[in-house]
Amino acid sequence: MALTTFLTSTTAFRTGVLLATAAATFAVGRVTAPTSVPAIGGSGNGRGDVNARNSGGGGREGSGTSVDVGRPTSDFAAAAGIDSAGIREVTGGRPMEEWLRHVLSQDDQIVRTSAFLRLLEQLETPEQIRAALTVFEGAVDRGRNGGEYAMLLQKWTQLEPKAALAFAETKSRGERWMAMGTVLRTWARVSPDEALDWARENPESLGGRGRRGEEGNAPMALALSQVARTNLDRALQVAGSETLAGRSRIPEMLATELINQRGSDAARLAVLNVPAGPFRDQLMQQVARRLAADDGPGTVDWVMTLPEQSRSSALSEAVGAWAQRDPVAAGNYLRQLPPTPATDASRERFAANVLRQDPEGAMAWASTISDEQQRSRALESLGRNWLRRDAGAAQNWIAQSDLPDPVKSRLLPQRAAK
Predict the structure, then answer these.
(1) Of the ranges 17-31, 91-105, 390-404, which one carries the lowest mean pLDDT score?
(2) Are 231 and 192 within 8 A, CB to CB?
(3) Is 272 helix (H, G, I), strand (E, B) or coil?
């Protein structure tokens, strides 16, 4: 429900989830046998052993035989807290950044992941993790190695969540979303109260908008997306106490979790137990939209039992979703309802959904909106969309219609000039 980051950053994140599962399994018991990966300087085709020790022989790098990888890390690395006996054991004494860059360049994912997990187990300080992350700022393929990048951020978050967030905020927009999402979801998993408090205090840390331009507290949406997976009731309670902007994705995300975790019938009951207010209204709308995509008739019947102040918007969402799947059935249902302010939003939504298939029918539906100002706005908006799709047909219809003259003048400025 996402926050719902995010995607490639989506692909990278999904890969990160799989790798994180592997990391958890790996951490149960350390693998003592060395992992075979190509020798540094080799062909990068998955052959050779980066941890091979050269006992004095002269094996050729890249040949698959033992090579000398025993050069010690620099004094600078040791002084900076980057070096450790465990890291040296994994890298065979090579500088960690050099070794990791080589590992991440391997085409064999099993080889690449196995070697990376061995290193990840030995990274014990924020300085070591930060040094590993610098490798991704170079020539490493971030799309392919997004999973490893996410795992480093997850481990850093477990040690210093605020420092990991500060690092994520320095990235460019697309990468910042993936990094912030990874850090906030990890923090919300291990320490939900702290993560939620930070999100509440830093609503503008992602520019105040979601990836798709949603308004509201984007960090809160990201943190709640994780809390909702493990404690949905807590997530609903927190969301109900927040001030949500008109286009916040929090109700959308929580509606999805509610239906997925508890089913349609329980979701209908659950929204009624949420305290009355803007969040409950938006949650009802999102639940109605999702349920109507599968069961239009049953959903609109349920919507008509909702409190009056919530009914109009929820019905609009339900009719809109139903119309996308079965516009004839949705239209027949809507035709039975009298044109009133309570059904105006549904008529406008239905007209917008059928404009592509039946533009004249859409204009006719918009003409049944009872509120004069809303009707005028809807007709003008539909007319503009129709003009963009089929200018000739739209112009002819508009010119011969009984639309108000001001609307015609705005839609057909050349005609008005005459």
Answers:
(1) 17-31
(2) yes
(3) helix
Please state whether 136 falls in left (phi above 0), alpha (psi between -120 and 50) or beta: alpha
Q: What is the pLDDT of residues 136-167, one digit of tens each?
A: 886 667 678 889 999 999 999 999 999 999 99
Q: What is the pLDDT of residue 218?
A: 85
What are the residues whose beta carbons fall under 8 Å from the beta carbon of 382, sequence distance 6 or more?
351, 352, 355, 359, 362, 363, 366
pLDDT in tens, 14-71: 444 444 444 443 333 333 333 455 555 544 444 344 443 333 333 333 333 232 333 4
Distances in Å between the Cα of 293 and the Cα atoms of 133, 182, 323, 327, 335 are 43, 31, 9, 12, 19
Report d(CA 288, CA 278) in Å as an integer.
15
CB atoms within 10 A of CB 269: 9
pLDDT digits (tens, 9 = 90+) for 258-286: 999 999 999 999 999 998 888 999 999 99
CA–CA distance, 268 with 314 (Å, rounded to integer): 12
**Rounded Cα gap, residues 133 and 84, in angstroms:** 17
Using alpha carbons, select from 8, 274, 117, 30 the residue that is nearest to residue 285: 274
Please report, to the nearest 10 degrees, the dihedral formed by the alpha carbons of residues 85, 89, 90, 93 taken in order: 90
319 neighbors 330 (Cβ within 8 angstroms): yes
Take residue 165 and report the two structure tokens written for it: 């967030």
- What CA–CA distance (Å, rounded) separates 212 from 313? 22
Tens of pLDDT, residues 323-379: 999 999 999 999 999 999 999 999 999 999 999 999 999 999 999 999 999 999 999
Measure the CA–CA gap between 290 and 296, rounded to whole angstroms. Answer: 10
Cα 54 to Cα 343: distance, rounded to the nearest angstrom: 80
CB within 8 A of 87, min separation 6: which ones? 73, 96, 119, 122, 123, 128
Residue 398 tokens, joined:
């508009």
Cα(101)–Cα(280) distance, integer angstroms: 49
Q: Cα 265 from chain centroid?
A: 27
269: closest CA among 305, 297, 238, 234? 305
Q: What is the CA radius of gyration of the chain?
A: 29
* CA separation for the pair 60, 418 (Å, rounded): 86
CA distance 74 to 291: 61
Supply 340's token pair.
């009133």
